[in-house]
């Protein structure tokens, strides 16, 4: 069970978005199976995962795309113009936490469904445990992209996202989970991958006959990526 990235250790009693309404429902279902069928449960909640091969709809990814294209990026602010903060977690740290969570519960029932041991129940928040405000995210992207962002600041709507996320230390205590990648270092790795993978070049040379012109869809515009056949088939 993996949660949305917008959830804390405590479920809200009156969620304001569909993202916040599903975690309590999942917990009720897993509680039921744990209690009635003696099924050991280990749940994972991921906090704002980012990095290579990430989701293009995530803010860090879309910000990178728009900054490179010279487009506006929309940065939301909270009540009284407070900056939103997220517990950004690099993908490598998430994988380490995922692996550490394996086999955290002993066998609780046999092949016939008979109880043979305690049915343990764990929910681990996998985050960086160091929330960072969104303007800082933008500043790091500007630094590594070497391009100034064009920012459109917008007030967060009432049914928008939560203003702040922060994973607790339960995973650190129980699993020895210790995220090692801070946001600046993680974004540096992401930017390097993104430019390499998509072949972005602000001033590309004219193509020659031995070059494959590879079109890829990057946001709302088609862009040219000049790459050789060898690099096209060998890229990571």
TrEMBL record:
Family: Belongs to the NAD(P)-dependent epimerase/dehydratase family.
Keywords, in A-Z order: Isomerase, NAD
Matches recorded under PANTHER family: EPIMERASE-RELATED
Gene Ontology molecular function, alphabetical: isomerase activity
Keyword Isomerase part of the UniProt annotation: yes
Disordered: region residues: 1-24
Polar residues bias (residue ranges): 9-20
Residue intervals of the NAD-dependent epimerase/dehydratase domain: 27-106
InterPro entries: Epimerase_deHydtase (IPR001509), NAD(P)-bd_dom_sf (IPR036291)
Name of the molecule in the record: NAD-dependent epimerase/dehydratase domain-containing protein
SUPFAM superfamilies: NAD(P)-binding Rossmann-fold domains (SSF51735)
Pfam families xref list: Epimerase
